[in-house]
Amino acid sequence: MLIGALVLINAATAAAAGCVFDKCPETELSGGAVTTEYSGGAVAEVIGAGAAEVVDYVWRLLDPCVLSDERLGSCSGIDYQACPADPGRAVRYLTVQQRPVVRPDGTAVIPVPGGAQPGDLLGDWVDVRTGCIDITALNPPPSPAEVFSYFERLPLPQLTAEHAPPGDGLSGLPVVFWTDSPTTQTFTIDIRGFTVIIAAEAQQYTWHTGDPAAPTLTSTEPGGPYPDQAAEHLYRSGTYTASLTVTWGATFTVDGSAPADVPGTTTTEGPPVTFGVVEASAVLTNPYD
After folding, report:
1. What's the whole-model pTM score?
2. CB contact set of 164 (below 8 Å; sequence gap of 6+)
3. Which of 95, 33, 104 is nearest to 68 (CA)?
4. What is the per-residue pLDDT across 141-183, written as a single tens digit (0 to 9) for each?
5. What is the largest CA-CA distance in the chain?
6. Does the pLDDT of residue 17 top 70, yes or no?
7. Which of 82, 94, 194 has the alpha carbon at shortest distance from 134?
8. Does an H or E element contain 31, and which?
9. Do 230 and 223 form a contact (C-beta atoms < 8 A)?
10. DSSP label at 121?
11. pLDDT tens, residue by residue, 31-79
12. Residue 57, Cβ neighbours under 10 Å: how many?
């Protein structure tokens, strides 16, 4: 089985620094994104903040590497820690921060400057703790539909149509088709911090004959050289261009979960192959010459 890779690595960059509370930009990597900050009211519930703390502070969860980048200009090894794998749950190594906020009655846990309104942020962000936090409520595991959106964009192989005879065919004798290109491939990708393994497999082969009289043939097997061909076709004399369209299905796992079907298929188009078909003529000869 060939191994391909479309890996989105959880790496914080300088572009992720300087995030504000309301919205932190995501780090764009190869068509996907890794979230480096979680903020908003749901964070307080996830970290188990008490009722008074919910009123007194706003909360956020931040990738420790982003913090180090903001404060020191770089990350270090201690900013990355592995958390226990729990299929179906999202557990990430994050820093919990709090920041005072003006209460609805205009007071706060620190002095309120003149002109401040309820909901305004005061002071600086303060680290509360850093560790493995279950953020499933903020970042649920990828759904089958989300996995399918990645599956459609994977660099699946384009299978080549092989044919025999390898040169010119003969009218009245079938040209046989098969493919010996790889028909399975596995990809490991990162979707929002989840390790997703997609195992793709060719499910159907559509052979384009190049003959308007019978433009397509289908099979569920790649076949092989005669007599194990996947398809065959009788041609009249002429020049033809054949190709192969492959329909791919797949299964996937998320952080070591049980395999599940990807809900949909995708196709790849193989390169065209041009060949001639000639008509044989009978020639009488004298066997005694």
Report:
1. 0.68
2. 175, 176, 225, 226, 229
3. 95
4. 899 999 999 999 999 999 999 999 887 888 889 999 999 999 9
5. 121
6. no
7. 94
8. none
9. yes
10. B
11. 344 567 888 889 999 999 999 999 999 999 999 998 998 888 888 888 8
12. 22
What is the distance of C-alpha 64 from the center of its chain? 25
Residue found under tokens 């909360």: 59
118: preceding bond cis by omega (within 30 degrees): no
Burial class (CB in 10 A: 0-12, 13-18, 19+), 94: buried
Nearest Cα to Cα of residue 38 among 140, 164, 108 = 140
Contact 211, 235 (CB under 8 A): yes
Instruction: Note whether 153 and 31 are within 8 A (CB).
Output: yes
Q: Which two tokens stand for residue 139?
A: 């970042």
Q: Which two tokens stand for residue 26?
A: 């995501």
Residue at 174: amino acid letter: P
pLDDT score of 247: 98
